[in-house]
Amino acid sequence: MSALPERDGQPPAAPPDTLPGAPATVVVVGGGIGGLATALAVSRAGHRAVVLERAPEFAEIGAGIQIAPNGILALERLGLGDAVRAAGVHMAELRFMDGVTGEHVTSLTLTERYRRRFGNPYVVVHRAELHGLLLKACLADARIDLRAATAVTGYRQDGRGATALLAGGGTVAGDALIGADGIHSAVRAQLVGDGEPRISGITVYRAIVPMERVPEELRLPTSVTWWAGPHCHFVHYPIAGGAFLNLAASRDNGATEAIAGVAVGEELVHAQLAGLTAPAARRLLALGEGWRSWVLVDRDPVDGWTDGRVALLGDAAHPMLHYAAQGACQALEDAVLLGELMVQTTELTDTLERFAAERHARTAAIQRAARESVRLWHPAGEDATARNKLLGGLSEDELHEHVAWMHDIRPFPSMDHHNYDGEPWA
After folding, report:
1. pLDDT reported for residue 287
2. How far apart are CA 379 and CA 374, in angstroms?
3. Full-prediction pTM beyond 0.85?
């Protein structure tokens, strides 16, 4: 069934609650990483997708994004594994530094043993690079219809289909509807109705520096590096093939108002990160220009992601703080699982319910882990000393085991036997 305008206010007919014999049409609300990945997964399952994006064009904002092996595996299922591995900078370590003393506390290695265990490298890319690869694949797929400047305000449905309600008064109908429209999702507002996101009280400041401006001894071209300090921390890593250094500095400053992309002066950033006194950290922060700020927001995990033929995906379903570096990876996992379930089953509402049920425990655990990680980054004094001693005493295998429950997700998609309570898999 193609996504056509309704006639006389009724969606096109389809057998109640089942995927039709002909390819189904899935209306995807949101054209970001999660939405485009969903369209590709639906197409690879033999169905059609219509992607509705509120912005005037399909584009992605933001800077660096980290993709752990579980995200690479999902991209492989979408046919983009090789492209992302080629575009990304392959990291050799997650490097943890004490931002006060300058001590190198520990490194979680990402080289041969890590790649052998998890089956893929850990790469970083510019967010626009990943989005561009997904967009190119969607544009080349005749089963995917991309519609920009199409804002969705809500949905309606019956036993025959689900319909997106557009801001201009129009509609787009399909067999199912997926809300992949981010943390401020209009689909979630109707489906869950849990109000505005939770304000974390943490402000993050971001800038991008041409690598040629970075002193050679500070470049660390294959490292994601964290500098942890009292109530603040700072992370940097190369993006765009190593041409730029991505800077992201966080301050637990009790912010109470959500902001996004607001320009701030260098003096304010330096003052907010004054607790980081290690000379190398200060030198790197001083390189930043054109800083912009965001107050971080997320939501509590919820059980209900589905409403008949409508389901949520990615940040619309399980928005998380970025400290676990898993937001995009989890959206990619969502998309791939949904596509694979659409191959395996014929009952449409059952497919969406199974999708949400299989994804809930894992994503909720990562949402919680991302929140709790602030306790790792922001302690001071004796607490920071104790943290350094604990982390510094872990072996390479112990560090790998600590992230195994997030970074490995095989076999995919049958995940029922794994432990998603924030502990390594048995």
Report:
1. 97
2. 8
3. yes
